Amino acid sequence: MEAQYKTRDGRLIFKVDAENQKEIFKQIAVTQEVFEAETECGCCHSKEIRFRVRTVDKHDFYEVACGGCGARFEFGQHKNGRSLFPKRRAEDGTLLPSRGWAKWEASVASVHNKVTYKSTQTGHVAKDSDACLIRESEAAQAAVRNPQRRVR
Ligand SMILES: [Zn+2]
User: Fold this and answer.
1) Which residue among 23, 36, 118, 150 is buried most deeply as judged by most CB within 10 Å?
2) What are phi and psi of 120, to 5 degrees?
3) 105, 94, 150: which is closest to 131 by C-alpha?
4) 44 CA distance to ligand 1 middle (Å)
5) What are the pLDDT digits (tens) for 73-100?
6) Residue 47 alpha carbon to ligand 1 centre in Å
7) In angstroms, rounded to a whole number, what is the distance separating the alpha carbons of residues 69 and 43?
């Protein structure tokens, strides 16, 4: 069985080849989860969004970046090393604001030419190599400031 699937925004067409309906269903489902995760920026609602891969210390970070306001939406990586999922929750399981979109400012103060990023939401400063940890520490700080969030 073969099928062609065009994403909701029409920018991508996937060819799905599978043994049966269930397999086609599954392949379309995982395609939708990642490639239709976001059709506009969660901060400024611009439709000028693009896929981007940043490589930091040999680790690849998959994200969608907004050309309008510079916000980013991150994808997590499954342990199988092949597939992605949209990151909508912090490490403690709470939903991230703006559906997971966040803005980061590059700051001038950098050591060894490493760009540092500061979240405009919290003012928390972290090195670019720590980018994947920013949300985790933010969530921890949020839990301290607002303990009742933990209960849910
Ligand atoms: Zn934006």
Assistant:
1) 118
2) -75, -15
3) 105
4) 4
5) 999 999 998 999 999 999 899 999 999 9
6) 8
7) 8
Contacts of 35 (CB under 8 A, 6+ apart): 7, 12, 14
Distance of alpha carbon 88 from alpha carbon 64, whole angstroms: 13
Q: Measured between alpha carbons, how far is residue 35 from residues 75, 96, 136 in Å?
A: 11, 19, 25
DSSP state letters, 66-119? ETTT--EEEEEE-TTSS-EEE--B-TTSPBPGGGGEE-EEEES--STT--EEEE
Cα of 112 from ligand 1 centre, angstroms: 30
Task: Tell me how far the alpha carbon of residue 27 lies from the centroid of ligand 1, in angstroms.
Answer: 29
- pLDDT, tens only, 20-64: 999 999 999 999 999 999 999 999 999 999 999 999 999 999 999
Residue 85 tokens, joined: 């999922």
Contacts of residue 89, defined as CB under 8 A and 6 or more positions apart, other chains included, come to: 95, 96
